[in-house]
Amino acid sequence: MAYNLLKGKKGIIFGALDENSIAWKVAEKVHEEGGSFVLTNAPIALRMGKIKELAEKTGAELIPADATKIEDLENLVEKATEVLGGKLDFVLHSIGMSVNVRKGNHYTDMNYDFTTKGWDISAVSFHKTMQTLYKKDAMNEWGSIVALTYMAAQRVFPDYNDMADNKAYLESIARSFGYFFGSEKKVRVNTISQSPTPTTAGQGVKGFDGFIAYADKMSPLGNATADECADYTLTLFSDLTKKVTLQNLYNDGGFSNMGVSQQVMDTFMKEEDS
Ligand SMILES: NC(=O)c1ccc[n+]([C@@H]2O[C@H](COP(=O)([O-])OP(=O)(O)OC[C@H]3O[C@@H](n4cnc5c(N)ncnc54)[C@H](O)[C@@H]3O)[C@@H](O)[C@H]2O)c1
Predict the structure, then answer these.
(1) Hey, which of 70, 94, 121, 129 would you mutate to test ligand 1's pocket, going by the most ligand atoms within 8 Å of its Cβ?
(2) At 190, which CATH number?
């Protein structure tokens, strides 16, 4: 259902890789709600080709940028404001990658070059993006910047590995930069802490199927889907949430406040009975 929530708003969406990506769903829904945007991803992701389909479907320009490279981000912000014909109202940072996870390195046996690279991609890139937008004064007043995160920033999920630390850093950047963006430019900055979701990045986590099933059984409303995450993101881009800033907002069906659920209890009771 479209409400014209983002009519006339302009922005940049990072991180759509394929139709499972959370950023892909956000792009589709922003388009439905009347917003226009530039799509961006790392050059290698653009070469995979899928994102071109999304660009055609949503009438978006595609501008490659490695989010760890300042010169790429500067080029992106300059071109995006040119193509869209003015300053931006929204930016989605939907980027995450751990090289240690990819290479199967255990948390207690990290390769620190990989740790640094994953931290740069997953966390510092958010600072680099905001610093570029800030220095170029590229955001409109009452604009909104959102990054995606996961609850492993607060609680232990052993197989989430160094991504847990990266997410904690990312959430802290949202608060620290959000202060300056808010007080000096009236721009809000928030993170959405999403349920486990079957995407390329999500499925990279060891034992993901168990992880997602457990979270679903623990959450009174069940796991939030990528579509539902996109809906929530849209509310934060809209004018209906103007004074929400410096927040880490859970879109997780209630998981983050649960201790145990009946469904999870039942699993253990059965094991005990048999
Ligand atoms: N899937 C989940 O379970 C889940 C849960 C909570 C939060 N998140 C977060 O949501 C965000 C989006 O992930 P997703 O699940 O949609 O997976 P995804 O794999 O579809 O998206 C990750 C994106 O990051 C991009 N990326 C990687 N390196 C980059 C770089 N150097 N420069 C620019 N882009 C780069 C990838 O190309 C990809 O498009 C991530 O921050 C992820 O941590 C995911």
Answers:
(1) 94
(2) 3.40.50.720
